[in-house]
Every structure is written in structure tokens, then in C-alpha cells.
């Protein structure tokens, strides 16, 4: 008697789950090897070996070792954008982005990549390794482009002709980047307090942006 075949949806779910596991294993291996041995000494072959897959399998998921090591950054960009899409429709764009970032930072079950173990070392490495920094910038720009499209949809506008979505995203993401760089330079502290410090610093950075924007349009500040 022929064995019953699993439903097509179940088989697809298994394939997707396996693909996520493989991608995660490669990303973790790349990050750990780069932190252990440095970027120059880490090869794609070594990453594939540590993840127990072939070099060809690595190439199906990533364009290079830098891309693999920073896959956590890409994942968090996707999480912020998912939270941004879920914000109430009537919420002003800058406030929606700010609250999406706060929800991302407050998630303790799946912490933001910056506050996971050893990530301060990776942040420090970004400043010393141009290739790693370039990969980080590509991922950041891709995430911001998605954010711009999301805000354009929320506003019912065209993100090419209407300047608002790009301005809001560039300003809001710039605030997050500035706060992150300041936080990364701070020495010491345990892991949990570091996460709290980052969330507080991000909130103060957004307050600073709003305060400066308000001051720029206050009476007497406009050049005559």
C-alpha cells in the first residue's frame, strides 16, 4: 500500500523552515568566525564548513561573507518595517516610525541585534573594516527604501514626487543610527542594562530631533 503524501502546504512549510535554519546557521557561523579571526582571515569555505553545508549552498543565500555576517541587521530592518506597517493608519509618519523602533527595541523574546552578545565588538569592527561597513550601508539603505514605500502607502502618495516619505525616513533612521553609534562607544555595563541604555538614548535622540525641528520654525528664527 502506497504511503500517503503530506499536503503540499506542509511540504512547503518544511522547506521554508529548513531554508531559514540553513540561512541562520550560515549567518551565525560568518559572524562568529569574523569576530574570532577577523574579516581578512575568514573565508566563505570556512563559514560553510562551520555551518556544515557546501560552498554552493552558501552562494544560494549570500553574496559574500560580509553579507552573511550582517544578516541579523537585515532581519531587524525587516522587523522594524513590519511594525511600521502595523501602526494605526492615522498616526503621523514620524511618530509611527518612532513607535515601531521602540517596539523593536522593547522586544525581549527576539532582541534587537545590537544588544545581543558580542555585537558591540561587531559595531566596533564596522568602523575598521571598509568592506564590512559597505555591506552594512547597503542593507541599511535597502531597509530605508522599504520604509519610504510603506510611508508613501500610508499617506496615499507617490514617494518619487512627494518629498515627505523620504524626508521622514531619512531623518528618523538617521536619529536611530546616531543614537546607536553613541551607545556603541560607551564602555562597560552588563548586557541587559545596555539594552535599556540604548532604548533610552534613542528616545532622547528623537526628542532632540523634534525639539530642533520646532526651534527651526519658531517665530524669529526665519531669516528675513
Overview of this structure, please?
The chain has 224 residues and is an all-alpha fold. It is 72% helix and 0% strand. It has 10 helices and no strands. The protein has helices at residues 8-37, 44-50, 55-61, 65-69, 71-85, 93-106, 119-128, 130-155, 164-185, 191-216. Helix 5 (71-85) packs parallel to helix 8 (130-155), helix 6 (93-106) packs parallel to helix 9 and helix 9 (164-185) crosses helix 10. It starts with 7 loop residues before the first helix and ends in an 8-residue tail after the last helix. Residues 188-193 have low confidence and may be disordered.
Shape: globular
Q: Which whole number gives the mean pLDDT? A: 87
- The unreliable regions are 188-193
Class per helix and strand makeup: mainly alpha
Give a count of the beta strands, DSSP E runs of length 2 or more: 0
Order of helical and strand elements: HHHHHHHHHH
Strand content range: under 5%
N→C terminal distance: 89 Å
Question: Can you lay out the helices and strands and say which pair or pack?
Answer:
Blueprint: H1 8-37, H2 44-50, H3 55-61, H4 65-69, H5 71-85, H6 93-106, H7 119-128, H8 130-155, H9 164-185, H10 191-216
In short, what is this structure?
The chain is mainly α. It has helices at 8-37, 44-50, 55-61, 65-69, 71-85, 93-106, 119-128, 130-155, 164-185, 191-216.
Which descriptors apply to this entry?
single chain, 224 residues, mainly alpha, 0% strand, globular
Amino acid at each position: 500500500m502506497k504511503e500517503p503524501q503530506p499536503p503540499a502546504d506542509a511540504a512547503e512549510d518544511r522547506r521554508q523552515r529548513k531554508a531559514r535554519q540553513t540561512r541562520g546557521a550560515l549567518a551565525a557561523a560568518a559572524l562568529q568566525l569574523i569576530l574570532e579571526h577577523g574579516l581578512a582571515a575568514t573565508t566563505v569555505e570556512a563559514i560553510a564548513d562551520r555551518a556544515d553545508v557546501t560552498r554552493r549552498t552558501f552562494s544560494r543565500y549570500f553574496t559574500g561573507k560580509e553579507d552573511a555576517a550582517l544578516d541579523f541587521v537585515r532581519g531587524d530592518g525587516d522587523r522594524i518595517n513590519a511594525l511600521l506597517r502595523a501602526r494605526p493608519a492615522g498616526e503621523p509618519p514620524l511618530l509611527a516610525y518612532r513607535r515601531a523602533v521602540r517596539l523593536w527595541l522593547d522586544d525581549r523574546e527576539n532582541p534587537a541585534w545590537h544588544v545581543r552578545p558580542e555585537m558591540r565588538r561587531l559595531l566596533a569592527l564596522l568602523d575598521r573594516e571598509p568592506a564590512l561597513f559597505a555591506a552594512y550601508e547597503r542593507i541599511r539603505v535597502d531597509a530605508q527604501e522599504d520604509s519610504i514605500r510603506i510611508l508613501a502607502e500610508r499617506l496615499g502618495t507617490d514617494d518619487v514626487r512627494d518629498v515627505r516619505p523620504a524626508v521622514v525616513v531619512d531623518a528618523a533612521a538617521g536619529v536611530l543610527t546616531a543614537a546607536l553609534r553613541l551607545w556603541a562607544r560607551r564602555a562597560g555595563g552588563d548586557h541587559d542594562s545596555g539594552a535599556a541604555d540604548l532604548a533610552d538614548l534613542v528616545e532622547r535622540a528623537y526628542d532632540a530631533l523634534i525639539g530642533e525641528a520646532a526651534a527651526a520654525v519658531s517665530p524669529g528664527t526665519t531669516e528675513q
